[in-house]
Amino acid sequence: MVGIAIIGTGGISKKHIAAALNFPKRCEIRALCNRDTTKAEKLCGEFNLSAEIFSDYTKLIGDPSIGLAIVCTPPASHAQITLDFFKNGRHVLVEKPMALTLEEAGRMLSAGRDGGPVFSVVSQNRFISGYAKLKSIVDSGLLGRIKFAQVNSYWWRGKSYHSLPWRGMYKSEGGGVTTSQAIHHIDLLLWIMGMPNKVTSTVKNFGHPDAEVEDLSVAIFEYDDAVAVFTASQLHHGSRSLIELQGEHASISWPFCVNANIEKPDGFPIENKKLKSEIESFYDSLKDIEYEPFTAQLDDVLTAIETEGQPLVSATDGYRAMELIGKIYRTAGIAIANR
Ligand SMILES: NC(=O)c1ccc[n+]([C@@H]2O[C@H](COP(=O)([O-])OP(=O)(O)OC[C@H]3O[C@@H](n4cnc5c(N)ncnc54)[C@H](O)[C@@H]3O)[C@@H](O)[C@H]2O)c1
User: Fold this and answer.
1) Which residue has its alpha carbon closest to ligand 1 atom 31?
2) What is the mean pLDDT of the chain?
3) Could you tell me which CATH number the domain at 2-123+293-313 has?
4) Whole-number pLDDT of residue 87
5) Fewest CB atoms within 10 A around its CB: which of 78, 265, 310, 337?
């Protein structure tokens, strides 16, 4: 039984509490910590928890009943809280972005290496069946080498989205849409295609004049023999995100769609029905992930703890996502300390 402490009981903590309640035989929420304890008390009531309430997480770091800290505070405190729990041999699941700066993320990575406690970064989209299936199809080789990827990380946020005190500034949020929302798609792209060799980008704020951070970024990622165009936006009505991967033999995308062409004698395309149906059958043969994404990621972290294994989303993955986002800012000429 893994005792859980949730540090930071604002908006996202509810997802983690609800996730933990799915595994009553494997974990128990024993502590909720928030600077303003009334928020934690409210959540205790809402979820009918018998957890202890704390305002200072340092009171918990040596508590032997706590095995896993789930860090849900704003980004500026992720590094310190994570490192404090690590020092005491506790497992950590930290919300994205894993830190405010790459330098902090690097220190967290070093502390989490070498068979120590389990360290995972929240990236729940890897546990969405559609994305996981996309990755399996790419890994199957059915598409051939990926030549081009289009990733539209489209969201819509109004101006009052930045009303939380830590949002809207690079020094406390770490970035705008690229860091706060599109990091999920950045992680998926890195998972599927790896780190590009070269990044060029433009970063703008067109719709949120009260915020310092960006609400739009467009980047081109160059690989040895592939290119990806990545757009992160908080301006997109309908928030219709897309991942489309164009391989040598066929393309797939999420929302799910397969296309496969071969050429007619004149070079124009006709559908490769055989390959299309092979890819669709492969997709249908893949199992859906049993849980909703936050629950599935907690299941993965608990399994890593129980088996002394590795979680699907490692600290290195969290670091690489920040590294690539840092390159998007840098190549657009946005100077942010330690990014
Ligand atoms: N995975 C996702 O899809 C997702 C979605 C939303 C937010 N997030 C991430 O979760 C984190 C929190 O976001 P949120 O929207 O819940 O923020 P929030 O402001 O609603 O909640 C954060 C809470 O942490 C408390 N807090 C701050 N510092 C603290 C400390 N040192 N000790 C104890 N409590 C402290 C604050 O009082 C606040 O109540 C951010 O990193 C954010 O990017 C992730």
Assistant:
1) 77
2) 96
3) 3.40.50.720
4) 93
5) 265
